[in-house]
Amino acid sequence: MNDCVHDEKGVIYVGVIFISLIIFVLSTSLLNILLNNNMIISSNNDNYRAGYIVESILELKIEEIMKLCSQATGNYLADLQTYNMGYIETVGLQTYNIGYIETVDLQTYNIGYIETVDLRPCDMGYTEIADSNILCSPSDFCNYMADLISDIEDLSGWETNPFEEYKERHYYKVDIKCDLSKNCINITSRGEYRQARKFINVDLELPRIINDGDGNPDLPGAVISPVKVIRYYQTIGL
Fold first, then answer.
1. Where in the chain are the domains?
2. Is-above-0.85 flag for pTM?
3. pLDDT tens across 124-147, in order?
4. pLDDT tens digits for range 12-50
């Protein structure tokens, strides 16, 4: 009888140990899965933050480049207008109308009574340029872009912990190079948050003249394309 009782207790003990071992293995496996998932989520969050850092900085740099190019384009167009107005005022205009041709001065020119008018530089009646501020030749747009190179490349830089809302260590670096011969700007950028890193490259096209106006060399016009992004892509490293 006692042997049966001891056998039953032994079976119970073995069963308890076996069940405890199963529970331990399951608990350990579940804990390992939870830890791995937490690491994956944390890593993904770090990657998102690193991507946000580099994309935010890139957006700011591209906006600053666009402002610089817009100012240079505005200066070019203003100088070009000054040249054209000075040319018109000093040279005069010859008006072509059906049946007759007359020469008029810009200050007194009135198109109200003319049905069809073609304005071209006058071949006679040239006067000396009295205003020394009038440009002697049309502006070269390439010179305005060349003057921008140093200002654009000076936008390169790096900074550690630029965002106050991020408590962990983070970092960005931006390197900007201009190639006037190819009329392009290359931006290489890097963002870090803890161990996560993101690398993004951007290629921009500088403003360029796409239309010289009506083809008149004495009174040039210009249609200028603005800065535009031609490539935006992520890389595995700088």
1. 1-37, 49-89+136-235
2. no
3. 433 344 444 444 556 788 889 999
4. 777 778 888 888 888 888 888 888 888 888 888 999 999
The count of residues in the chain is 238
DSSP codes, 201-226: EEEEEPPEEEE-TTS-SSS---EEE-
Phi, psi of 143 (to 5 degrees): -65, -35
151 backbone dihedrals φ, ψ, rounded to 5°:
-65, -40
Q: Of 86, 85, 51, nearest to 193 (Cα)? A: 51
CA distances from 199 to 50, 55, 233 (A): 9, 9, 9
Q: Which residues of the chain have pLDDT under 50?
A: 5, 94-135
Angle at 79 between CA 75 and CA 82, to 5 degrees: 140
Amino acid at 6: H
